[in-house]
Each structure stands twice: as structure tokens, then as C-alpha cells.
Specification:
Elements (H helix, E strand, L loop, with lengths): L2 E8 L7 H15 L3 E8 L4 H14 L7 E6 L8 E7 L3 E10 L3 E10 L9 E9 L7 H17 L6 E6 L7 H9 L1 E2 H6 L23 E5 L5 E8 L17 E7 L1
Parallel strand pairs: 1-2, 7-8
Antiparallel strand pairs: 1-12, 2-4, 3-4, 5-6, 6-7, 8-10, 9-10, 11-12
């Protein structure tokens, strides 16, 4: 049996006081040090993902290249090509690929990572870890349902491996059709550990003035082959010590401990 931690956080690209909040984000990632992290809304124009990985690595090891590697995928629409999704991982990477999800060029990135021998009775075994950011228009339920149907079909038809973790900003509440579809084949890790999904993952107090709506938009889904979810918590949720409107992002993240 092998236990590891997986996380997801929407970075909010370079908006909402990025220069002020970026070291807050780095510090809270260092505090928890997940083994693998799904990132959404990465600003590629400022090298945000690469900067984040370097800063976390330097604080952890003094080496900008270790222990994390980052894989990023840009959106395919010309007007959105400076934004993307990514995966930061301390687990060895075997391969990675990208699925186009349409709707202004949204994409999902899959990173297949190698697990230690104890995860599979001393046989080599890998896990698919996916970072995804679905269509954002609240009332476009059919768009997000189409996206998750394409995503699940892709994962289970092309290079299928039994161990799968799909994490990210789904832009949909737990009772939406895309989330209900995901639950047909996957378990929500947070709900399994706590009996329900988070009441809200958006917004934090970074969003000013505060909006009238709050809700759960972020999830970590695990396939049936993932043996157990031992813990699931909110993370990247602490404000700056001297400013209660400064948070790492406009979303909080999810951090889960999994056994395979």
C-alpha cells in the first residue's frame, strides 16, 4: 500500500493582486507539500506556473529544478492561448498528453506518473492524474456535460490505466449534471472523506466587493481502483497576517490523502 497527497488550486492567473499574493501561495504550498497538484488558470504570458514551481523548489530544497516538475497545456483558442492548466508533481513522470475540450479552447492535461513498488506488490504501476478547468458560464450545463463525457471517454479509451485522479475547477455545483455524470464512474474524494462536498470553494475574501453567490466548484475525483481516501481538507485558504482580503487565490484549494 502506498499513500500520497493530491491537490488542486485555481491560480486566478495574474489578476487580483498577483504580485501581492504570490508568495502567500508559495508559502502555503510549501507548508503542505502535496505530492501532485492540479493547477488551473495559469498565466503563461508571465511564466506563472514555471515561476511557482521554481519558488516552491527553492524553498524546499535550494534547487530550482527539484523536487517538483511542472507540465503545462495552453488553451487552444487564439484569444485564450496565454492561459492554461498544469500539473506540478514530485512523482516520476512517464508521459503526458492533452485533450481539447472546446468552448474557447479549454483543455485537460493528463500526466501519467510512476508509483513506488509498494503500491503494486512490487510490480511497476502508474497513475493518471488530470488537471481540468471546465466552461465557466453558469447556465451552460450541457457544455460542461459534453466536456466531462469527452474527458471520461478519452481517459478510458486511450492508454487506459485503472488508477485515475481527475482534479480541478469544474465550474459546477455538486447537483449539476456534469458532476452527477462524474459520480457514475468516480468518487468525490472530499465527499468520501467528509460525507459531503465542501459548502463552498469560491470565492475567498480576495474578491472585493464580495459577490452575492458562493458555492463548491472544485473537486478531486478518484477511480474505483484507488483503494481509499483517508483524508480530505481545504487548503491554500489562509489570508495574509496583516490583510484579511489578501488570499492565495479567489478559490480555495482541496488537499486529499489517497491510498493505492
Amino acid at each position: 500500500m502506498f499513500a500520497f497527497t493530491a491537490a488542486t488550486i485555481n491560480l486566478r492567473n495574474r489578476m487580483d493582486r498577483w504580485l501581492a499574493r504570490r508568495h502567500l501561495l508559495v508559502g502555503q504550498l510549501v507548508d503542505d507539500t502535496p505530492d501532485i497538484i492540479a493547477l488551473q488558470e495559469i498565466s503563461l504570458s508571465i511564466g506563472q506556473g514555471s515561476w511557482l514551481a521554481r519558488q516552491v523548489n527553492i524553498r524546499l530544497s535550494g534547487d530550482a529544478r527539484h523536487p517538483y516538475r511542472i507540465i503545462q497545456a495552453r488553451r487552444s483558442h487564439p484569444r485564450r492561448s496565454m492561459e492554461g492548466v498544469g500539473v506540478m508533481t514530485r512523482l516520476p513522470i512517464i508521459y503526458h498528453d492533452v485533450l481539447s475540450l472546446g468552448f474557447e479552447g479549454r483543455v485537460a492535461v493528463r500526466v501519467n506518473v510512476e508509483l513506488p513498488a509498494e503500491a503494486a506488490a512490487f510490480r511497476r504501476q502508474s497513475l493518471d492524474f488530470v488537471s481540468v478547468h471546465l466552461h465557466h458560464v453558469a447556465e451552460d450545463y450541457e457544455a460542461r456535460l459534453e466536456q466531462v463525457m469527452n474527458l471520461v471517454g478519452w481517459l478510458n479509451e486511450k492508454r487506459r490505466v485503472p488508477l485515475q485522479v481527475i482534479a480541478g475547477d469544474f465550474n459546477e455545483t455538486p447537483n449539476g449534471p456534469a458532476i452527477r455524470f462524474m459520480r457514475q464512474s468516480y468518487r468525490s474524494a472530499y465527499a468520501q472523506a467528509n460525507g459531503r462536498d465542501p459548502l463552498a470553494t469560491f470565492p475567498t475574501n480576495l474578491v472585493q466587493p464580495p459577490p452575492d453567490w458562493t458555492g463548491c466548484l472544485d473537486y478531486v475525483f478518484v477511480s474505483p481502483a484507488v483503494y481509499n481516501v483517508t483524508k480530505a481538507t481545504i487548503f491554500c485558504d489562509k489570508p495574509a497576517a496583516d490583510d484579511d482580503t489578501l488570499y492565495p487565490s479567489d478559490h480555495v484549494g482541496l488537499l486529499v490523502t489517497l491510498e493505492v
